[in-house]
Specification:
Elements: E1 17-22, H1 28-40, E2 45-50, H2 56-60, E3 71-75, E4 81-86, H3 89-101, H4 104-113, H5 115-122, H6 124-140, E5 152-156, H7 160-167, H8 169-172, H9 181-193, E6 198-204, H10 208-223, E7 228-236, H11 243-251, H12 256-265, H13 272-300, E8 307-311, H14 319-331
Protein name: ATPase
Organism: Actinomadura logoneensis
Domain ArsA/GET3 Anion-transporting ATPase-like: 17-191
Length: 335
């Protein structure tokens, strides 16, 4: 087998499938995209897979909506390519029927009749087998010389509340098929998902509900015997006040008169008292959020898995921001 580039020392040496999940609103897709960029840095080839049909990857990389084919969407730092694939359930089902039943024409006819939607509705486990199967196939695919086509695959997976059921496809298809192509395909998928080559990472904010869902999700994965990866703490708000000022703000003991004098010294004579009152309120809210973050960070520290902190980007998320997050991921040893 021919290595494309030499190995790097990271927390996830040997992992080739990185599944990224998280509660809605935590930035799951953003972190998955940044992780793909980080993994591709230095000349690697990485595939970023989207399975929820939202075209979030295309928006992040500022490219047209992705068709059902693998396309390069970014060049990683120091060389390397990120390719992306938005899995279309209907197209993937047609591929599935052709691969195992030689029924491509029938699959297209089923699509026209709306039977595909019917089938995946009455048997949602089959839909998950198709989506996870497409991803695991990308992990296993090789070049003619025996090397892997992709050095790593990153899946932007469903949210935390559904991730265990989504990945545990053997359990999901147990009522659909005991033997035959469906069962064999599910078994093949599970060999990849349960292997040391897979890690399921969680994205969270330092807020009560996302942290609780992360902890519950990790517990559920372990109960199902699925591989737990790391926790990415996204959009951490760094304190902008020193500890003594934070404590005073939290207690409502800031010296308002001093703040008024500071506002006036800055040349804002008119309405200085009103501006000072707004600043005091903002400081109190900042102190509350900082305290909340510290409490939730302490809860996460009880987990015996790697944690990575990604900053809140002051100017919002854009393509440059993705590269910033990718660098933070690499610096902390996650890729």
């Amino acid at each position: 087998m021919v290595d494309r580039v030499s190995a790097r020392d990271t927390d996830w040496d040997g992992v080739r499938l990185h599944v990224v999940t998280g509660k809605g609103g935590t930035g799951k897709t953003t972190v998955a995209a940044a992780l793909a960029l980080a993994l591709a840095a230095g000349g690697r080839r990485v595939l970023l897979v989207e399975v929820e049909g939202r075209q979030g990857i295309a928006q992040l990389f500022d490219v047209p909506p992705l068709p059902y084919e693998e396309r390069r969407v970014a060049v990683a730092p120091d060389g390397g390519d990120v390719h992306a694939l938005a899995v279309d359930t209907e197209e993937a089902l047609i591929e599935y029927l052709e691969m195992f039943y030689n029924l491509k024409r029938a699959g297209k006819a089923m699509t026209k009749l709306g039977i595909v939607d019917f089938v995946t509705t009455i048997a949602p486990g089959l839909r998950d087998v198709i989506l996870t199967g497409k991803t695991s196939e990308s992990v296993r695919r090789r070049n003619k010389d025996g090397s892997f086509i992709y050095d790593a695959v990153v899946m932007d997976a469903p949210p935390t509340g559904r991730i265990t059921k989504f990945l545990n496809v053997n359990e999901e298809v147990s009522g659909l098929a005991k033997v035959g192509p469906v069962r064999n395909h599910a078994d093949t998928v599970m060999k990849v998902v349960r292997s040391p080559e897979t890690a399921v990472h969680f994205v969270t904010l330092l807020e009560e509900m996302p942290v609780q869902e992360t902890m519950d999700g990790i517990h559920d994965l372990r109960e199902a015997g699925l591989p737990v990866g790391g926790v990415f703490v996204n959009m951490e708000h760094k304190p902008v006040l020193p500890p003594d000022a934070l404590a005073a703000a939290a207690a409502g003991e800031l010296d308002t008169d001093e703040i008024v004098r500071g506002v006036k010294a800055a040349g804002l004579e008119n309405g200085a008292e009103r501006i000072a009152a707004v600043l005091v309120a903002e400081a109190a809210e900042h102190a509350r959020r900082t305290t909340l973050q510290a409490r939730e960070k302490e809860r996460l520290e009880s987990l015996d898995i790697p944690r990575y902190t990604l900053p809140l980007l002051p100017h919002g998320m854009d393509l440059a921001g993705l590269y910033t997050l990718a660098e933070a991921i690499r610096t902390q040893g996650a890729a």
